[in-house]
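Q: Two folds, back to back.
A: First:
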Amino acid sequence: MLKKFAKCIREYKMPTILTVLLMVGEAAIETAIPYITATYLINNIQKNGENVSLSFIIKIGLLLVALALLSLSCGGVAGFTCAKASSGFAKNLRNDIFDKIQLFSFSNIDKFSTSSLVTRMTTDVNNVQMAFMMLIRIAIRSPLMLIFSVSMAAYMGGWLAATFVFVIPFLVTGLLLVAKFAMPAFRSVFKRYDKLNESIEENVRGMRVVKGFSRENFEKKKFGAAADSICNDFTKAERIVALNTPIMNFCMYFNMIFVLIAGSYMAINGIGGINIGHISAMLTYGMSILMSLMMLSMIYVMLTISAESAKRICEVLDEEPDMKNPENPVYEVKDGSIDFENVGFKYMKHAKLYALSDINIHIKSGMTVGIIGGTGSSKSSLVQLIPRLYDVNVGSVKVGGVDVRDYDLQTLRDNVAMVLQKNILFAGTIKENLRWGNENATDEEIVEACKLAMADEFVESFPEKYDTHIEQGGTNVSGGQKQRLCIARALLKKPKIIILDDSTSAVDTKTDALIRAGFKSYIPETTKLIIAQRISSVEDADITIVLESGKIVACGNHNELLKSCDIYREIYNQQTNGGAQNE
């Protein structure tokens, strides 16, 4: 785990090393100041009294000021380098997580919820960043201050240092117990963060549904419950952590009282060579020791919290993509022919039932193929195997006569355009969204694609036309407009295969027919697969595949299916004679 995170430092190694060196310097200087004050200033004044020259006092004073400024400079510069190193580390870590997610197949993504991935890239990375900041700064300074201070206290205080034999074990035991009981509450918070983010995501995405059903109060209660749960866990943890302060105060005041009483007695009676300078130094070193232990306890708590975050981040970084390029990938798709040979597929390897089984289809390049079937018949599952969004468990899927697993993934997906059932538009202008299909598309090509997708008319009605800004998720356009823009985006790829996964469900039958007619003229050599719920969308297809429970029950053109397939005929009768035509 540590090696994995160390790789994220990369170009920020120099600020990291500088921070560590500056912390060593600051700790050494701060330890030297009480020694110089006690030995060269207080003891001289006590010993020589009025005979101490003003120039000597000024000389020592200036030395102390210089050391204080040098210590301040070390701390200030270390703060700058630490901020730069930790921020850069977090940036690289987020980039690595995001890059890894981009390599995931759908099956990998299915293992993590969207809200969980968001939490890992935000809250968890922030926790690890904070831990890294502490490790290169406080975790270097505090142990050094502890070691230096204990050494100097033992050297200067003699038997007075015996106070630490009691104080240090007591403080360490108390802080460890506090951390032990606080940690379970901190650990449970992360799962609750996932639920909180999930609640926010669902509410924002489904805002129209929430308002349509007047469920605002229900959503408020659900969010409030998640927020209260996090608040309760943090409150419980903070109540325990708050015990650090009284424990620290008890040890600090015990040390002060012991040093003042015992030290004064020893100084007055000339025991052990103790003098006022030693007592002053012991008080300062005692405070440094206790503060160092306090800082170490905070580091321990933070590291324990971040350890849970680090594990969650490593789960993403260690996840191996199910789909990888072969050793010698094919970089050219010959044509748009598609062959399913004895295909069997299930979403989870340990699942008992197959989503698709015994699939055998042979589609020639340039054909228009309809796919129809009831809800849950695995229509979408079938077409997702073509661009290799999932891999088959049994058999093979071939495009252009080559198994899809032998292609370079980018090459395959550049040649297969897919308009998904859930159409997604991104924040930006209409042009920027359409150029996802072809980043080098000219304005003329964009307009032509929109005309074929029947989107040009409504785009031209906007004041800014193709420069109109689309909100995140396309919330400022209707469902039908969103579908047509997504179809135009796919057309700009000029792919070998185009898949419409129920992508015209939100447009009327006339517009649907015009879109399909545009396909024939614009991309005649492209293989077109159309998943639809209405017969009119696939009526003119060269062949239509009828699916039921993940199996092909019939395959043929419209007239053949009317004669031979009961399911197809029943759907047709319902939509025509029954007046259930979708629009």
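A: Second:
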Amino acid sequence: MPRPISIEDFMCVSLLSDPQIAPDESRIALVKRYTDPEKSRYQSEIWIVPTFEGEPRCFVSQEGSNTSPRWSPDGKTLAFLSSRQKPDSQIFLIPADGGEARPLTKFKTEGSFSAIRWSPDGTKIACLYRETPADYTQAATQERSDKKLPPPARRHTKLRYRMDAFGYFDNSYDQVWVVDAATGEATQLTDGEYACDPPVWSPDSKTLAFFSDRRDDWDVLPYNNDLYTVSIEGGDLTLVPTPVGSKHGLAWSPDGTRFAYAGNPDPEDWWGTNNTQLFILPVSGGEAINLTAHTDKSVGYESLSDSHDVGATDLIQWTADSGALFVPISVRGDTQLCFIEAKGGDPFPVSPIGHEMGDFGITPSGVAAVILSSPTAPQELFVLQHGANGLTTTQRTHFNRAFLEEATPVNPENVEVPNGDGGTVHGWLLKPTNFDPAQKYPFVLYIHGGPHAQYGNTFFHELQWLAAEGYVVLYTNPRGSKGYGREHTAAIKGDWGNKDYQDLMLATDWAMKLDYVDTTRTAVMGGSYGGYMTAWIVGHTTRFTCAIADRLVGNLVSMAGTCDFPWPQNAYFKGDHWSNIADLWAHSPIAYAGNIETPLLLIHSEGDLRCPHGQAEEFFSALRLQRKTVEYVRYPEECSHGMSRNGPPSLRLHRLQANRDWLARFLKTEKA
């Protein structure tokens, strides 16, 4: 008989990404990531899946990271990235029918490759490469260790000198390279203290195009990256005139006449309250056509989960005739694969509703390989085809079948609650496993991060596990979330703790009226902005029995200058963190720490560069000095902001155990 979801089950789920269909459409390469519990790490393999019938087989399984499979245009070779040769990844080639993989690149310097792409004629591979600064190479690190010397000092000249889950740039950035596919001879095409986005090929294989912000003060100016082209022979970069604003996801049309990209035309909207929109630009530059502005929908992968990999494939993919494009669009909890004509019109969803699409690939004949998940099923590969009977969806992998045959996820109920201002709060309710309507159950309100993201129709281990532990779990998309139009998202711009708080409390009021909810045993919890809202809530109401704030933002004044993207003056909140702090302080949960009576668990990681761990330290000291009930669980430097999603498995397990113990202690469940 199937059992409830267990605390360890996140280690049983395989995550899939980056489906790449062979030129002859006969097979699909993809990346499968799974957990190695004994070594507390993740392993990624490349699998080959027959497109229409036949069993998947593991194709590349060398220990370490094996990612980014890319078919050569003739379909005879698969290029991929592998970490098998320490200390860094290299580009490898393997015959498409099997055999020994060989390293194509043999750089003498240490560094990391990404964004590999074959030229249309199959003679070269474009990529990004970042050289490891000399002081941080393996040899330099070992030498310091042998001499018992400390790490070197860092010297920063740019404000954005670090990034969460990456570390420190140390003035070394991703540069565009081109590699000869036969000899491995490599040519560097860009340099300088400017990062480059992934390059794309012209149809004639002679030119590369890429986005890069190459202004002198790019680190303090409003977002505005430019479009450049460069010959594969090297030489000066050519600036292609484009509208202002942030841009990404560049795609060159097969007929060579146009570029497509995703972007935000407002350079001052640096936190992304606008919808990400789809643009088409003539190859010579100039005015761009906005294909999605009229839809009030956002292009991209906006859903949050602890059980998915997303966005490894090209964000935008043209049809073979350059007449239309495929893009992901996030709406009301779904992430859908959508088709939109280049001449304009409404996007047409081609993937099933009630799902999150994590990645996709399209063939010239219109066959789609997509990674799909749902609230009760982790990611699997599906093939979509249009035929005489309409769209058919065929599941081609069952990597998580054994897990689903053993465990029983709960199917969430859709929730719509009036928000008091003419709109609704959309969300989902999970009842406890083996639910008995005659019983009373403790309640958990779980709040997502972002804030401009969404909960959605995807598998989420922690939420399922809480239901299995006997909790009624409510998770919603209050104002500020993506997926419900720009007005919904922008409603909290510079005003956290107002309309979002209202929405969350009204949703809680609705849940408290359910006959099976025990209103004397309630908890609120969340991470990042969800941690902010948790701390804000307990500073403004005592209605919850206990709370858990994970990787929180507690003090907007200190946060504004210490996170990995420092906040400009008046760009989102009013004022700044050095001369006009009134608005930042008024919106800081720590300003209301004197009101907190709810027992609070703080969870944070030393390696968090997005919300630095000082945020938790300030909150902990403020509450402890007042003799409030508070505990602080602090994880080591190896853990980043996304520790609950991709941190070391053993520490992810410890975090869940800490949550379980705190909830049990105050909600008086059986594990108390």
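Q: And?
A: The mean pLDDT is 95.
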